[in-house]
Design goal:
The protein is mainly alpha-helical. Helices cover 59% and strands 0% of the residues. It holds the Pfam family mTERF.
């Protein structure tokens, strides 16, 4: 065991325990978190280097003593627990009459430190910056490694998400990894049975809107589905599943009220607009709907009826599409219907200008 002491420096295990405590009490200081993770990972890898300058006999002896399997991702177990760190305190001064013995918390076991290290390395394998990931969602540290792997396995084998899609999902919604599997299964069942999403399209639906997995079925997904089907009259909600995570009160009703009360469009025509173009619910009133409405009414001088019949008007860029083509129509003295003016390719639009 003499060669083992040359690989594990005195006090390294104790410092590893202290870094474990730092990681369990992550603060908002991202620099502190970054240093803790980097230092802990360095100590973990220095304890068990993959390339040792020892001969084959010493390497085999070390593996037998530590019970290290040959695979790099296997769990590591020490036969004997590490010795606790010796803490030296400054003796009390002669002026003090009483001395208070400090109370020390026992260091965490090496097994818990090892599990934390394996968890960090596993999360790091997705090539996502751990600092913002753990800062924005600290429960990841308290979630067991087995649960993390089970969730990722479910996403990969059941929903059939490829590795890049899983990485994107974890980056956007890290809380998915901490949800109970029963919650994820409940969402998938809702999408298949109630929203009528086809099985072959399920992975695309989740990839486009990962927050579907973190939205509660009873309080968000199902009420929104009923609103889109009943109030708006959308029959194919499975083509607009990205809307299911939206709030009816905060997002849908506010836009309906704007078209009806501010623009002066009848309630019936307002509902008809959203039925024809459900993605209209996703557009910002301030940055999209309001400026384009003013341009259509003031600059273009068109009637609201054209907007009701062609709500896709709001999907085109005001600076790159609507304004340039309107000006060219004015220069040529041509008035084209909104669909023909905006949907036509550049070549076809030029042909219309030459007629």
């Amino acid at each position: 065991m003499g060669h083992l002491n040359t690989l594990i420096a005195p006090g390294v295990l104790s410092r590893l325990h202290l870094h474990h405590l730092q990681l369990l009490h992550l603060s908002d200081d991202s620099l502190s978190i970054r240093r803790s993770i980097a230092t802990t990972r360095h100590h973990f890898r220095s304890l068990f280097p993959t390339k040792c300058d020892v001969n084959l006999r010493h390497r085999k002896t070390m593996q037998e003593a530590l019970q290290i399997p040959s695979t790099p991702t296997a769990q590591l177990h020490l036969l004997t627990p590490p010795s606790p760190t010796t803490v030296h305190f400054r003796p009390p001064s002669s002026a003090s009459k009483t001395s208070i013995s400090p109370k020390l918390s026992p260091p965490p076991s090496f097994r818990s430190t090892e599990e934390l290290q394996e968890k960090l390395i596993y999360l790091d394998s997705f090539e996502i910056d751990l600092i913002p990931l753990l800062t924005t969602h600290p429960p990841l540290l308290s979630t067991t490694l087995s649960h993390l792997k089970s969730t990722v396995s479910f996403l990969s084998t059941t929903i059939l998400l490829p590795q890049p899609a899983v990485r994107r999902l974890i980056y956007i919604c890290p809380q998915v990894l901490t949800l109970p599997l029963t919650s994820i299964v409940s969402t998938i069942t809702f999408l298949l049975r109630e929203a009528h999403v086809h099985t072959d399209d399920l992975h695309q639906v989740i990839h486009r809107r990962p927050r579907l997995l973190t939205s509660d079925v009873k309080t968000r997904l199902r009420p929104t589905l009923y609103f889109l089907q009943g109030t708006i009259g959308i029959s194919g909600v499975n083509k607009h599943t990205h809307l299911l995570t939206c709030s009816v009160e905060d997002k849908f009703l506010s836009r309906i009220e704007y078209f009806h009360e501010i623009m002066g469009i009848s309630y019936k025509d307002t509902i008809l607009m959203f039925r024809r173009f459900p993605s209209l619910f996703c557009y910002s009133i301030k940055d999209n709907i309001e400026p384009k409405f003013k341009y259509l009414a003031v600059e273009m001088g068109r009637e609201l009826r054209e907007m009701v019949e062609f709500p896709q008007y709001f999907s085109f860029s005001l600076e790159k599409r609507i304004d340039p083509r309107h000006r060219r129509c004015v220069e040529r003295g041509v008035c084209l219907p909104l669909p023909m003016m905006l949907r036509s390719s550049e070549r076809r639009f030029r042909d219309k200008m030459e007629v």
